[in-house]
């Protein structure tokens, strides 16, 4: 693959495993994850270990996650946003996004 786009399961250790896989691959990625992942030690350690500087795309509205009837919650207890890393092109893509994406298309675009 050239680029990984994923919305992994949020249960168990799936978040940690996909993050480890992505960081170890050295290939660009976009992961839709709960906002709280950015504050977790495993995330901070993985980003530091691989010297990555991703950025984050926060949509205006919360994503609605649908689940089989009788499982999960009616509404998500967290916001999901995109964790983005494009390899050597990350800074250029982040700068391009700041200049060309309409503020109406996102709530925040941050590093």
From TrEMBL:
Give a GO molecular function annotation for the protein.
methyltransferase activity
From the UniProt record, give one GO term of the biological process aspect: methylation
Q: What is this protein called?
A: Site-specific DNA-methyltransferase (adenine-specific)
